[in-house]
């Protein structure tokens, strides 16, 4: 059965940054993690990390001491060729999650329409990263299957069109939650974790999305800003 095929999820370390003085954890290191889901049909990519350095990003990158990783190199370390990527989804369109989308012309990139609209408002993101020649965005609202055993799951809250990825496995779903939940500690309920709910764009929506994710009773949860996975 196609939905029960072995789907291998590989974490892709896309770089680090340092929280600024006005951030909740000033001076501490933050990480950005993308994921590749391998199946017999190819590799589905969830997020593309920070954009490469550029003059326009200089000030922002200096403020947060952003240390981006180049996706082709990160993929090579994981034994994946850029050409094997059949489709991409961004959890949302802030520049730490979609920075290298331009590596994928003529390949479907799934985003929620609400996120696409938000991204084209002033000061939301770095538009050069998402508007590029050959860009092929598939704007689909809500939950939907994108490949056998791989489903987009709408999780608004951190941003208007945030989405997660649900990957089937024989002993329960694997959730790639992007920034719908900030950290392992937030999911696990440890005291004073790095959490994203209190600073999200829509706090009630964030809480509803967390509830929906919990109701899936996952086997494993992987985060966009925490290298440590949670396992049941
Ligand atoms: Zn964000
Ligand atoms: Zn982020």
List descriptors.
about 230 residues, alpha/beta, Metallo-beta-lactamase, Chain A, six-stranded mixed β-sheet, 6 helices, about 20% helix, binds zinc ion
Commentary on this structure:
The chain has helices spanning 58-63, 71-77, 113-119, 127-130, 184-188, 203-215, and strands at 8-18, 29-39, 42-46, 67-68, 85-89, 108-111, 136-139, 144-147, 150-154, 163-167, 174-176, 220-222, 230-231. It has 232 residues and is an alpha/beta fold. It has one domain (2-231): 4-Layer Sandwich (Metallo-beta-lactamase, Chain A). Strand 10 and strand 11 form a beta hairpin. It is globular and about 45 Å long. It starts with 7 loop residues before the first strand and ends with a strand. 18% of the residues lie in helices and 28% in strands. The strands form two sheets. Strands 4-1-2-3-5-6-7 form a seven-stranded mixed sheet. The model has no long low-confidence stretch (mean pLDDT 95). One zinc ion binds at residues 92, 94, 158-159, 179.
* Main sheet overview: 7 strands, mixed
Strand order of the largest sheet: 4-1-2-3-5-6-7
The total of beta strands comes to 13
CATH topology: Metallo-beta-lactamase, Chain A
Q: Which cofactor or ligand species appear?
A: zinc ion
N to C succession of SSEs: EEEHEHEEHHEEEEEHHEE
Q: Class, according to the CATH hierarchy?
A: Alpha Beta
Shape: globular
Radius of gyration: 16 Å
SS field, number of helical segments: 6
What number of domains? 1
Q: What is the terminal-to-terminal distance?
A: 25 Å
Oligomer: single chain
Mean pLDDT across all residues, rounded? 95
Question: For this structure, what is the CATH homologous superfamily?
Answer: Ribonuclease Z/Hydroxyacylglutathione hydrolase-like
Residue share in β-strands: 25-35%
User: Could you say which structural class the secondary elements and strand pairing correspond to?
Assistant: alpha/beta
Low-pLDDT sequence parts: none
Q: What is the CATH architecture assignment?
A: 4-Layer Sandwich
**Proportion of helical residues:** 10-25%
């Amino acid at each position: 059965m196609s939905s029960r095929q072995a789907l291998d999820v590989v974490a892709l370390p896309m770089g680090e940054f340092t929280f600024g003085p006005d951030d909740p954890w000033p001076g501490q290191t933050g990480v950005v993690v993308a994921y590749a889901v391998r199946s017999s049909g190819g590799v589905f990519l969830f997020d593309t990390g920070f954009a490469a350095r550029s003059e326009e990003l200089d000030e922002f990158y200096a403020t947060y001491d952003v240390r981006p990783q180049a996706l082709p190199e990160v993929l090579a370390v994981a034994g994946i060729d850029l050409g094997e990527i059949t489709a991409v989804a961004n959890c949302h369109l802030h520049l730490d999650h979609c920075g290298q989308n331009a590596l994928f012309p003529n390949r479907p990139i799934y985003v929620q329409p609400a996120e696409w609209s938000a991204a084209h408002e002033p000061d939301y993101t770095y538009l050069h990263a998402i508007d590029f020649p050959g860009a092929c965005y598939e704007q689909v609202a809500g939950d939907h299957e994108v490949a056998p055993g791989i489903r987009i799951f709408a999780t608004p809250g951190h941003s208007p069109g945030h989405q997660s990825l649900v990957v089937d496995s024989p002993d329960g779903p694997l959730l790639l939650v992007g920034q719908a939940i900030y950290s392992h500690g937030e999911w696990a309920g440890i005291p004073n974790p790095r959490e994203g709910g209190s600073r999200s764009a829509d706090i009630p929506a964030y809480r509803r999305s967390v509830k929906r994710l919990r109701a899936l009773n996952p086997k494993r949860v992987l985060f966009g800003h925490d290298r440590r996975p949670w396992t049941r």
